[in-house]
Each structure stands twice: as C-alpha cells, then as structure tokens.
Amino acid sequence: MPFDALCLRLVPARTVHGFSYAANASGWVLTVADAYMSELTAREPGFAGLFAAPCCLPSSTEDGLEGQLERLAQKLVWIAPGYAAAIEGYPQNDLLLYRREQTL
Fold first, then answer.
1. Exposed, middle or buried: residue 103 (CB in 10 Å: 0-12, 13-18, 19+)?
2. What is the pLDDT of residue 64?
3. Which residues contact 95 (CB under 8 A, 6 or more apart)?
C-alpha cells in the first residue's frame, strides 16, 4: 500500500507487514498492544473502524501528530511517579487529532 509523508499508517495486530522508505526518509513507528487497542475501542467506538483493516490516513498538520509522538518519546524514557498516566493518553490524542482533521 503506497503512502506519502504526513500520514498515519494503521496496521491491525496479527497482520503481516513491512515498509519501504525513500532514502533519507524520517518518521515514527508506534506499536500499541492489541489489548490496549481493544480497551480503547470499547471506550470510544468511533475509533473501531480505524483498526478493521490496514489503512493509511493522511495528515495535514506535521506538528500535530509528529509533535505528539516526539512528546511521547520523551515520556517513555522518564521513570517517575505518574509515568503510566503520562503516556496513556498519547495514542488516544493522536487518533483524536486525526479524527478532528478529517471533520474540518
């Protein structure tokens, strides 16, 4: 499945996948546990359709999704009280940012 920069690639659990990138490409990969995604879609049914099949969701704002992932990376190396609570909201917020972009 071809894709261009500024996108969110969603690949459901247990889906064989691999990616080829152009030379000098940069970006982020975030792997989220299937159990967490099941819990998230149970709480927020509007996200369930995003994980039914592999898809590529275009993003119009580089700072929105990329900024979120940069902040998540910073939190993942921070071990202190509240660590789990600090990182739990990042995947949810990324999806929320995407959904909001699509409704504008």
1. exposed
2. 65
3. 40, 47, 50
